[in-house]
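batch_manifest entry 22 of 60
target: Major facilitator superfamily (MFS) profile domain-containing protein
source organism: Dicentrarchus labrax
requested by: lab member K.T.
priority: normal
notes from requester: please return tokens only, no post-processing; we will run our own comparison against the previous entry in this batch. if the run fails, retry once and flag.
--- input ---
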Amino acid sequence: MTEEFVHEYQPLLIKEIKDKKRIKFPNKSLLLAVCAACIGGTFQYGYNISVINAPTTYVQSFINETWRERYQTNISEDVLTLLWSTIVSIFTVGGFIGVTIGGTLSVKLGRKGTLLTNNIFALTAALLIGLSYPTGLFELLIIGRFFTGINAGIGICVQPLYLGEIAPTSLRGAMGMGTSIFITIGILTGQVIGLKELLGKEEYWPILLSTTCIPAILQLLILPWFPESPRFLLIDRGDDEGCKKALKQLHCADYDCEWEDIEKERNNLVDFQAKKPWELLSDRSIRWQLLTIILLNAAQQLNGINAIYFYADYLFKQAGIPADTRPYVTVGTGACECITALTCGMLIECLGRKVLITGGYTLMSICCVLFTLTLTFQDASPVIPYLSMACVFAFILSFGLGPGGVTNILTTELFTQTSRPAAYMIAGSVNWLSFFFIGLVFPFIVIGLQQYCFLVFLVICSLMAVYIYLVIPETKNKTFLEIQNEFQTSKSRKDRSADGVGTTLLSTSI
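--- output ---
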């Protein structure tokens, strides 16, 4: 009887042993592959968002001088504002275009191949921006920023795909945090390099904006030493040997479980082709996953984090911080977000995705209330401005600990191989459109509601916390197929429940 028991449940016992052997810490090759992908990916996104702030007045002076040389008159204030806002906002237009082509490129060229090809846009942008000053063509700045946007859009779409597919299941969350960690490192690096002690002086602004070529060159030198995504090689290309070789390099000897998981997913997706975004939108079987990533990516931009950065300088001024010291305090906010992203990376495999992102939105809701109160009673006491500053840092900490880090990981985990590239195209498009929308509408919200604008963000953060708690399952240590099955099971339960309610109502009315 004992022998029959052991024989019958042998597969379960083997799985348990294998689970114990799962990697708990990434090896050096995997960590270096993550860094190589991120340095030319989301690092560029964060860097190009922050680096444009330091030379604002210098670029505007350059535009004015160029205009005077061309037309023998000073540029009007309205036209100058329009040109400067175009230089800044064209980045989001490029980002949107980058996202829409990133998923398609990742299927045709592979994840690694797309990341390497993407550096062409960064190098072209650096060249155009660098030439703008000596040639006296401010139009090159606009075109250059457009190319940096395309680079950032492709990077933020394809890099999380690569990270999610090269990481073992037990480390997928921690490795996926590379996306947000390098965004925050990029923001912080842009803030630091923009200080006057480094490249923040007027004569250095073309060099400052051209430094986007450095991460591109680093990625071109480092990433070719690492393999393509094992899942892409096996499922999309059918390259068994290439997949095994990639797994051995990334996971060393402990790659058997990952090979089995990828093979199961391939067998489950036989005769399935990579889906297009419009096919994903019409697929009712994954509508909850799709709705989830659309809401998560929209909320990531609309949750008030941009408003906090908008108010930061005002609050630092109210707190009595001198104007020449404020850039260093701003660097402190970047460092704060960077630290929380690293903390989230260490906690995500322990606490799970759901706890972090729900907790993050809950804390952000509380901060919105406190922020509204402190702004309303700003002059009531000398202590209040410092409480407002504390709210700034608390809000940034809450964002970095949850929504800032977990959103991209969930976009990876809620879809299988054939749906994932299209899902990233949709999620990225929503993210960039929301970014553009909040940049366009937020000034009017502030004018209309003033300090009460944070009540709008309170509603968004609270609703997201409730939605995540009720709808999204915990994805920690689950394969992509297990996560998909959990959504399908939940959907079936809801359908059965709805049918049961309908039957009861029908019988009652009869």
